[in-house]
């Protein structure tokens, strides 16, 4: 297996919903395990996601989990996920889905460097950058 870099996103208690949303946006195969499946006895965590991994047809990998028992969830703006390429219809489709119900911070439009670029925060609080190479 080659070395790869991918986002690993921490959620408070909605990793399952977020990952199902990302699967609807990007397609692919989603595998997940709950804390309960690995023997965490606390019923409040039984159905929360210990680890989820989405492998998409375009080669993206997104991993996520709910915050484990005893740890504090600290959402922040220290991570953004970047999607870039030259397949405009594919990238615009991702943009439309990711920005729906979220907040557009920079509209997807032609930028000074010649590409089409936009930034949004999806309905789960994850910041996305989309760059369509021209």
Give a quick summary of the entry:
The protein has helices at 15-26, 88-99, and strands spanning 8-11, 29-34, 49-55, 61-66, 80-85, 103-110, 116-121, 127-132.
Provide a descriptive summary of the structure in words.
With 134 residues, the protein is of the alpha/beta class. It has two domains: 8-66, 2,3-Dihydroxybiphenyl 1,2-Dioxygenase, domain 1 (Roll); 80-132, 2,3-Dihydroxybiphenyl 1,2-Dioxygenase, domain 1, CATH 3.10.180.10. The chain has two helices and eight strands; from the N terminus they run βαββββαβββ. It has helices spanning 15-26, 88-99; strands at 8-11, 29-34, 49-55, 61-66, 80-85, 103-110, 116-121, 127-132. Strands 1-4-3-2 form a four-stranded mixed sheet, covered by helices on one side. It is elongated, with a radius of gyration of 16 Å. It starts with 7 loop residues before the first strand and ends with a strand.
Name the descriptors.
2,3-Dihydroxybiphenyl 1,2-Dioxygenase, domain 1; 2 helices; alpha/beta; single chain; four-stranded mixed β-sheet; 2 domains; 37% strand; 134 residues
Tell the overall outline. elongated
The CATH architecture name of the largest domain reads: Roll
Q: Mind telling me the CATH superfamily name of the largest domain?
A: 2,3-Dihydroxybiphenyl 1,2-Dioxygenase, domain 1
C-alpha termini separation: 32 Å
Strand order of the largest sheet: 1-4-3-2
Q: List low-pLDDT spans.
A: none
The fraction of residues in strands falls at 35-45%
- Biggest sheet: strands, sense, closure? 4 strands, mixed
Q: What is the CATH topology descriptor of the largest domain? A: 2,3-Dihydroxybiphenyl 1,2-Dioxygenase, domain 1
Mean pLDDT: 91
- Rg, rounded, reads 16 Å
Give the proportion of residues in helices: 10-25%
Structural classification: alpha/beta
What is the count of structural domains?
2
Number of helices: 2
Order of helices and strands: EHEEEEHEEE
> Would you count the extended β strands for me?
8
CATH class of the largest domain: Alpha Beta
